[in-house]
Automatic annotation (TrEMBL):
CDD domains: P-type_ATPase_APLT_Dnf-like
InterPro entries: ATPase_P-typ_cyto_dom_N (IPR023299), ATPase_P-typ_P_site (IPR018303), ATPase_P-typ_TM_dom_sf (IPR023298), ATPase_P-typ_transduc_dom_A_sf (IPR008250), HAD-like_sf (IPR036412), HAD_sf (IPR023214), P-type_ATPase_IV (IPR006539), P-type_ATPase_N (IPR032631)
GO BP of this protein: Golgi organization; phospholipid translocation
Annotated binding of Mg(2+), by residue: D497, T499, D970, D974
Keyword field: ATP-binding, Magnesium, Membrane, Metal-binding, Nucleotide-binding, Translocase, Transmembrane, Transmembrane helix
Localization per Swiss-Prot or TrEMBL: Membrane
Residues of the P-type ATPase N-terminal domain: 115-180
Transmembrane segments: 372-401, 421-449, 1073-1094, 1106-1127, 1134-1154, 1174-1197
Domain P-type ATPase C-terminal: 1015-1203
Reactions catalysed: ATP + H2O + phospholipidSide 1 = ADP + phosphate + phospholipidSide 2
NCBIfam families found in the cross-reference section: ATPase-Plipid (TIGR01652), ATPase_P-type (TIGR01494)
Protein name: Phospholipid-transporting ATPase
Cellular component aspect of the GO annotation: plasma membrane; trans-Golgi network
């Protein structure tokens, strides 16, 4: 057998403009027996790369040991067993892999996957993964061993197992093994039942997914199969709006040119539709099941990986080889949209799909309470061993000096040698284990029983909470695990997805500005105030329009009145919305339906439709709309497509001989290209833009320009030359676009609301006040993420600066982070922390859109302080000064010291990080700098991140901050993040359930997270007393008790902060409780001892016997414990009364039952003790002495140093209800929604490429309009401005394609064209 070591070192070229990589490849053969073929391994996009200078420079800093180890892993080291890589398929003489395959650079080898379509027998020999999905942890066979292994990781369980083994040895055991076996079996059994219940729920969820139906082609017929039965190589049919069962290669679809549309929000969080196109050759099969069943193509492709945007392979069919890329692949988790049907062959199934490759591994999650309990148990065990050691030494000394002479009365065991020294030594050793058994109650196994019962019952309380029930979908909150409840009270970081978690992914046309007039606000005619729109607000009636949509709602009647009186500016506004887009229309069952690439564009076209400007249909060279019932047909001359650099799109149309350009885009981009003049309208429109942006709306500017025929013909000719250029095509096209998109007239502004889920801003505000830091991790684009950040008020205009990390190389990202760190230091230097909670800002607290700190900005100089510094006070400090009779809402009091929340930056900073920059930020050599910057920012938003990057960010915070984290999401792209966090929360009730299946808790709405965290308290702070209490009252307090009611828990989020510091359960509290227990134990022993020592009853009967003393002391113990736990109970329910007082009564009943019915050894002892007055006086004295120090301690600190919870409880008891105004002010100032902002509200979830698809005709079912034929356009390009009439003569010339179907129906497909075809 031969092994081979390959080392790859990857680094970037020094030239930043070049993307070329250099590969250093060192190979060492350890042993060579035969000549073998070495396989090439291609570097992927996930290779960790740095600039050449940062890797090879001689003056780089010395690395720490940890960094040195991590740097080794930055090199790819591959050990390979070459025998393992030999093909399992014997070479054939007629193998399709000829020498031309090698010349093409695609070498068939064993790190590739070979698939034969419709050939299960061939594919089965490779043992590819089935499509069965498993998220459960156990099976019937593995449940017992795996569950016991997990449970014995708890040291107490392992300790009692060892103790049980010792008790089975008669020579050292003085107690029956039953005393240990029963509690141990009870703990293990209860935990096993709980874990089995959790896993059964996972099995049920897995079964629901695996039993979904899929239509598979078998022998030329469609057969219904379960998802789990689908195999690699099968061809499946997918229908519109259905989930895709596996990763498939698209073969054919219902749309023209083999196109189909998918929504990938489950994978990457992006809401806009993506286009996929199959090969022209396979698209010809249509939906003929016989032809598809006979398809026998061979696919050779890459092995399973987690790269969502990369796929490489070839299809070999009918002797020809076709290249395959990511544009032909549809991934599991995607949803088919706007496509009636499509067929595809399964490439990856089950765990090999890219969705599951990004899901991460399920981890055994243990709470900090469990870890602390393990530490405490270790301490208790060492204390026990020290006691046993002391007793062993004392026994050895006594036996050697005294005991050997009493063998007549106390004979030694036969195992003990008769020699005095040796015998004493053996006896001492045996006594060590005997004392370990006798004193085993020092280790509190009942503590674990109480903890597990409390967790189990609390999980049901979460499931039954009616205030976390979402009636629209009928979904309850659900605790999918019962082992993590106490972690809910210690969350420091929340990592949230955006789409479907914070937002509803519903775009609504909310407001607009036309000709300097704002529309959308509902004004009270009597007072002139703006009326808040609610569910009770009556929307406008659009039923006069036969094409209106019942679900469309608009409330400002002034805009509809302007349409009815045919206002010229309003007509121009809506006509632009109806014409400037890439939406496709389709008539289904007599109803006009739109297929939009993005929800933004769908909302705009829908708004125009409802106001009477209906987009009817399009052809490759025409657009048809209906304006107030009158049909208008426009000749489509050109589409200047949208991209993220241009931030705008335009169309050029001709109607009645007039040429006009319509454009929509970002406000700053459009304003730069407006012609001079009309300043008053521009200024008013800018004010409206600022107002809309301040309300968190997504804005677009609309503009138009009339064109001269001569200018356009000249421009079109140069546009054609740029479009077919081989070098610098994109740059030349951008320059051509700039020539025509200028000197435009401002038409208006649209304001779309990316509707948040109900209660999201309030929930985020309360969680932030509770000291919880919220990070948003989304796969959506930067502008959209920033806009949502302002909508949910993670970003505000009061922030000093918003840092944007968008560089592409390691060095550039490093420079940006250094600059941001310097900016923060400068602000902290010249604007230090104010002792009275003053927040400092710059330039009136506002942030210029152009001043965002990006890679191109210049870092400020430390020597020059800011010229203007305006001091503003925090709104919550105003409340504190007004309400000086209650505790601060920002501060907690600990031991008389006023402490501000840790790590809270008074200077407001936020940071937005792009995914390609995050790759470098997570590099081991940069993560420290990255953390230094982000930890000083109030808000962190990561956009364009992959699922695995989300998990890496969570892991980084867990590792570096040692903080308890929570991740919440609703899609498959959030699964890895949910699994990585301490607590994973899935949003249920959505289309996809992958996040719910991987979560620990599921809720229907993000707003329920507030109640889940702020009202589910840590039950462990009282369970430590279980060392000394009985179990039933502890369960009552742990399950039902609450320090304040649920309303005040939400009203005062700062009550949550002590959980961050483990104030209720830590080592200090444990040892304090242990000292209290020792004191109570001493009181319980010595006071009854003094009472009953040589005591005599009034009738002369002795009371100093051992049995009576033990019975009286035990009864007093139960009374003291009951009084103590009643004192600790802050919230009394019927269950608390039953458990506390019932437990006390049960003790006396059980004692009499055991002694009188079961003939116990203590018959009559307790009865005799209780018949004497000594018992009752002693019991009262013991209770007072035991409880009084606790009462005095608590009274002192509550009176002198009250915490916020103490004051809230006082307010509850005094029944003082906070006024509605103060509630609103404390929770969230609603006035912020109405503030104006000078930032840009631009955010458009759109992609380039659809313009080319439309003008090329590839996307069209309808053939080009013969009225606007292509030869006519070409002729016009060759004419001067004076020969336009002759062009009109040629207007009637026939379309060269019309002879074979120009008169066909609109349902006929256009001819097949390549993706890059440009129709001129």
């Amino acid at each position: 057998m031969e092994y081979e070591l390959e080392v790859f070192e990857v680094y970037d070229d020094g030239d930043q403009t070049s993307s070329k990589r250099h590969l250093k490849h060192n190979r060492k053969k350890c042993k060579q027996k035969q000549k073998t073929t070495v396989l090439n391994i291609e570097s992927t996009d996930n290779d960790i790369h740095r600039s050449k200078t940062s890797v090879l420079s001689s003056d780089r800093r010395h690395l720490s040991f940890r960094e040195s180890i991590l740097s080794v892993f930055s090199k790819l080291v591959v050990w390979r067993d070459q025998k393992r890589y030999q093909s399992t398929v014997p070479d054939k003489l007629d193998s399709p892999h000829s020498s031309k395959d090698f010349r093409k650079g695609y070498i068939p080898c064993d790190n590739q996957r070979r698939i034969h379509a419709n050939d299960r027998a061939f594919n089965s020999q490779f043992r590819y993964a089935s499509n069965y999905i498993k998220t459960s942890k156990y099976s019937i066979l593995t449940f017992v061993p795996l569950n016991l292994f997990e449970q014995f990781q708890r040291l107490a369980n392992f300790y009692f197992l060892c103790l049980l083994v010792l008790q089975l040895i008669p020579a050292i055991s003085s107690l029956t093994p039953v005393t240990t076996a029963l509690p141990l079996i009870g703990v293990l059994g209860l935990t096993a039942i709980k874990d089995a219940y959790d896993d059964i729920q996972r099995h049920i969820s897995d079964s629901q997914v695996n039993n979904r139906k899929s239509r598979v082609v078998h022998n030329g017929q469609l057969v219904n199969e379960k998802w789990s039965a689908v195999q690699v190589g099968d061809i499946i049919r997918m229908d519109n709006n259905s989930f895709i069962a596996a990763d498939v290669l698209l073969l054919t679809s219902s749309e023209p040119n083999g196109l189909c549309y998918i929504e990938t929000s489950e994978l990457d969080g992006e809401t806009n539709l993506k286009c996929r196109q199959c090969l022209v050759e396979t698209a010809e099969m249509g939906q003929d099941d016989v032809l598809i069943g006979e398809f026998d193509g061979e696919i050779i492709c890459e092995t399973p990986n987690n790269l969502l945007n990369k796929f490489e392979g070839v299809l070999i069919w009918k002797g020809k080889t076709y290249p395959l890329d990511n544009d032909k692949i549809m991934l599991r988790g995607c949803v088919l949209r706007n496509t009636q049907w499509c067929y595809g062959v399964v490439i990856f199934a089950g765990k090999d799909t890219k969705l599951m490759q990004n899901s991460g591994k399920s981890k055994f999650k243990r709470t900090s309470i469990d870890r602390l309990l393990n530490f405490l148990i270790i301490g208790i065990v060492f204390f026990l061993l020290s006691m046993c050691l002391f007793c062993m030494v004392a026994c050895g000394i006594w036996e050697s000096l005294v005991g050997q002479y009493f063998q007549t009365f106390l004979p030694w065991d036969t195992l003990v040698p008769s020699e005095p020294l040796g015998g004493a030594t053996i006896i001492a050793l045996l006594v060590f284990f005997s004392y370990a058994i006798v004193l085993n109650t020092v280790v509190p196994i009942s503590l674990y029983v109480s903890v597990e019962v409390i967790r189990f019952v609390q999980s049901f309380l979460i499931n039954w909470d009616e205030q976390m029930y979402y009636d629209k979908t009928g979904t309850h909150a659900k605790a999918r695990t019962t082992t993590l409840n106490e972690e809910l009270g210690q969350i420091e970081y929340v990592f949230s997805d955006k789409t479907g978690t914070l937002t509803q992914n519903i775009m609504t046309f909310n407001k607009c500005s036309i000709g300097g007039h704002s529309f959308g606000d509902v004004i009270d005619q009597r007072t002139g105030d703006v009326i808040e729109i609610s569910e009770n607000t009556e929307p406008l009636d659009f039923s006069f329009n036969p094409n209106y949509e019942p679900e469309f709602k608009f409330y400002d009647g002034q805009l509809l009145d302007a349409v009815r009186r045919r206002d010229e500016d309003v007509f121009s506004f809506f006509r632009l919305l109806a014409l400037c887009h890439t939406v496709m229309s389709e008539n289904r069952e007599g109803r006009l339906e739109y297929q939009a690439q993005s929800p933004d564009e769908a909302a705009l076209v829908s708004a125009a439709r409802n106001f009477g400007f209906v987009f009817i249909e399009r052809a490759p060279n025409s657009i048809t709309i209906e304006v107030m019932g009158v049909k208008e047909v426009y000749e489509l001359l050109c589409i200047l497509d949208f991209n993220n650099v241009r931030k705008r799109m335009s169309v050029i149309l001709r109607k009645n001989g007039n040429l006009r350009l319509y454009c929509k885009g970002a406000d700053n981009v459009i304003y730069e290209r407006l012609r001079s003049g009309n300043d008053e309208v521009k200024q008013k429109t800018q004010e409206h833009l600022n107002k809309f942006a301040g309300e968190g709306l997504r804005t677009l500017c609309l503009a138009s320009r009339d064109l001269e025929e001569e200018f356009f013909n000249n421009w079109k000719q140069r546009h054609q030359e740029a479009a077919i250029a081989l070098d610098g095509r994109e740059e030349r096209l951008d320059a051509i676009y700039e020539e025509i998109e200028r000197d435009m007239d401002l038409v208006g502004v649209t304001a779309i609301e990316d509707r948040l889920q109900d209660g999201v801003p309030q929930t985020i505000a309360n969680l932030i006040l509770a000291g919880i830091k919220i990070w948003v991790l989304t796969g959506d684009k930067q502008e959209t993420a920033i806009n949502i950040g302002y909508s949910c008020q993670l970003l505000t205009d009061e922030l000093v600066d918003v840092f944007i990390v968008d560089a592409s190389t390691y060095d550039e990202v490093h420079q940006q982070l250094l600059k941001f760190r310097d900016n923060i230091k400068i602000v902290h230097t010249f604007q230090p922390r104010s002792p009275v909670g003053i927040q400092l800002g710059t330039s009136n607290g506002k942030m210029e859109a152009s001043n965002h700190s990006t890679g191109t900005s210049t870092p400020p100089q430390p020597a020059n302080p800011p010229a203007v510094s305006v001091v503003t006070f925090r709104w919550d400090d105003d409340i504190d000064r007004c309400e000086n009779t209650r505790a601060s809402t920002e501060l907690e009091y600990h031991n008389g010291i006023e402490e501000a929340p840790a790590e809270e930056s008074t200077a407001g900073f936020a940071i937005i990080i792009n995914g390609h920059s995050l790759v470098h930020c997570l590099h081991p050599q940069m993560e420290r700098l990255f953390l230094e910057v982000v930890m000083q920012c109030k808000s962190v938003i990561c956009c364009r991140v992959t699922p695995l990057q989300k998990a890496l960010v969570v892991e980084l915070i867990k590792k570096s901050r040692q903080a308890v984290t929570l991740a919440i999401g609703d899609g498959a792209n959030d699964v890895s993040m949910i699994k990585a966090a301490h607590i994973g929360v899935g949003i249920s009730g959505q289309e996809g359930m992958q996040a719910v299946l991987a979560s620990d808790y599921s809720i229907a709405q993000f707003r329920f997270l507030e109640r889940l965290l702020l009202t589910v308290f840590d039950p462990m702070y009282i369970s430590i007393y279980n060392l000394f209490y009985t179990s039933l009252p502890v369960l009552g307090v742990g399950i039902f008790d609450q320090d304040v009611n649920d309303k005040n828990s939400v009203l005062y989020p700062q009550l949550y902060r002590p959980g961050h510091y483990n104030k209720f359960f830590n080592k200090k509290e444990f040892f304090r409780s242990a000292l209290q227990g020792c004191f109570v134990s001493a009181v319980l022993f010595f006071i009854p001892l003094g009472t009953y020592f040589d005591a005599v009853s009034p009738n002369g009967q002795g009371l100093s016997d051992y049995m009576l003393f033990c019975s009286a002391t035990a009864a007093m113990l139960v009374i003291v414990n009951t009084a103590q736990i009643a004192l600790d109970t802050m919230y009394w329910t019927v269950f608390n009364h039953i458990m506390i007082w019932g437990s006390l009564a049960f003790y006396f009943v059980a004692d009499n039952f055991y002694n009188y019915i079961c003939n116990g050894p203590y018959v009559g002892s307790l009865t005799q003790a209780m018949s004497e007055a000594n018992f009752w006086f002693t019991a009262v004295l013991v209770v007072i002495i035991s409880i009084m120090p606790v009462l005095a301690w608590r009274f002192y600190f509550v009176d002198v140093f009250p915490t916020l919870s103490d004051r809230v409880r006082l307010k509850q008891r005094m029944a003082q209800v906070r006024s509605r105004q103060s509630q609103d002010t404390l929770r969230m100032p609603s006035s912020r929604r109405a503030r104006r902002s000078i930032r840009s509200g631009y955010a458009f979830a759109h992609q380039e490429g659809f313009g080319r698809l439309i003008t090329s005709g590839k996307i069209m079912r309808k053939l080009p309009n013969p009225e606007f034929n292509i030869p006519n356009i070409i002729n016009k390009l060759n004419m001067n401005s004076g020969s336009s009439n002759s062009g009109q003569k040629n207007h009637t010339s026939t379309d060269p394609h019309s002879h074979d179907g120009s008169s066909s129906s609109s349902g006929m497909r256009a001819p097949m064209q390549d993706l890059d075809t440009i129709n001129l």
